[in-house]
Amino acid sequence: MTENDLTEKGITPLGGFSHYGEVTQDWVMVKGCVMGCRKRLITMRKSLLPQVSRKATEKVELKFIDTASKFGHGRFQTSEEKAKFY
Predict the structure, then answer these.
(1) Containing domain of residue 63, as a range?
(2) How many domains are contained in the chain?
(3) What is the value of pTM for the model shown?
(4) Which site in 2, 70, 81, 85 is 20 to 30 Å from 54, CA atoms measured?
């Protein structure tokens, strides 16, 4: 739930993530990409150099998390929304 999207929903899209399934544990959203295999464990650590650029220090404002299915025509954000339509 964010300030702009007041719908209470999980992070997992309808139908799950491709080749992964449903996320049931804690998660971290990463901007960009992460090298390696899909399900390989990654280690996150604090940067060795202090981040002082404007882009690195500005506050992130999360407005919307898209949880529509990426297979087929994913237009529903929640299962309740899908049940109303059909």
Answers:
(1) 1-86
(2) 1
(3) 0.48
(4) 2
